[in-house]
Amino acid sequence: MPAYDPDPKMKFTFGLWTIANPGRDPFGGPTRETISPVDVANILGEAGAYGINFHDNDLIPIDASPAQADTIKKDFKKALKQNGLVVPMATTNLFSDPVFKDGAFTSNNAKIRAYAIQKTMRAMDLGAEFGAKIYVFWGGREGAESDATKNPIDAIKRFREAINFLCNYSIEQKYGYKFAFEAKPNEPRGHIYFAVTGSYLALIPTLDYPDMCGVNPEFAHETMAGLNFVHHVAQALEMKKLFHIDLNDQEMGRYDQDFRFGSVSYKAAFHLVKLLEDYNYNGPRHFDSHAYRQSDYQDVKEFAKGSMRTYMILKEKAAKWNADKEIQALRNEINLGDPNLEKLTKKYNSGNAKKLLEAPLDRTDLANARLPYERLDQLTAEVILGTR
Asked: Does residue 377 sit in the same domain as residue 239?
């Protein structure tokens, strides 16, 4: 029986904030004691993870003295080395502190916008010190409750201005960062700017350095709004803009639950893993999730192990799906090619347009073509459930 042990090539990572989550939710306080970054490294080392990611203040409290910061960094570096862990990604907390109550890069206050950029520069310095090459931006407070309070056109321009500035900072410092933007349709603002992955994919070409900018979609975010997360990831993959991905799970229509990956939406998780593997995604697979509020830290370790194990199981299921002769025969039956027509529609010219207008395409015949989707979906379910 396969062990489904974590494969280092999968680059499984967790955030400091995920393992150290004390069990707090929007309706209740902590149920677990606070643990240190060193404790997190030890848990993830035992679980077999590849790396740890952090917000600046996950590692160093916002009010820490320089001496305290130096001690924390020294201890964390030692723990990383002892546990064979790396730091592939870093990010900035621009949402927890009261100063960001009305946004960071999109704030109406120029001093707050400047402070947000300053804080991010310092966090980029910190991430680079630990070897991070991906920098994620989640605009948790970039939004509004009332459009009377903030001009959305100004907000877009301000966000672009901040990112252009920070791209230049990364280039000047020779950090080699790739920026990845993380969308969320709702929470914690009444209305969040750049609500879906496609919003950022539309913004990126307008930036000064579009080649160094991509996206970091999160499973729970589009799912909580009733959207198909796999489709958003597919768009990012097709555009070669999937720089990083957050794996977790979510009941549709609920607050941001950040459940363990694959714990709710088995079919969606399967299709996501299959998409990533079929198209050779080679970036970090980051679990932005946390254990149930009822768990102690022994169970938190099981949460980490289970997150990676589920991915490895679904990776094997995806390979079985691809190798299944009946499934592939159905796929071939459904995907009907026509080289002559495809040649006409591949690229426009007046000759191709004339030939296409004259092509004998009968809508009644086309409508009668078989689409055995029920059988294909059932076989997919049987692969996932392990009966095939």
From this structure: no
3-state class (DSSP) for residue 279: coil
| Domain tally, the chain | 2
Strands 213-215 and 178-182: parallel
Q: What is the pLDDT of residues 220-271, one digit of tens each?
A: 999 999 999 999 999 999 999 999 999 999 999 888 999 999 999 999 999 9
Domain assignment present for 2: no
Q: Enumerate residues 6+ apart whose C-beta is below 8 A from 97.
A: 62
- Among 58, 102, 249, 288, which one carries the catalytic annotation? 58
Residue 58 among the catalytic residues: yes
Do 208 and 344 belong together in one domain? no
Q: Domain holding 21: CATH number?
A: 3.20.20.150
pTM for the predicted model, two decimal places = 0.96
Task: Give the domain range for residue 366.
Answer: 325-385
> Which of 5, 39, 55, 249 is the catalytic position?
55
Note if 55 is an active site residue: yes
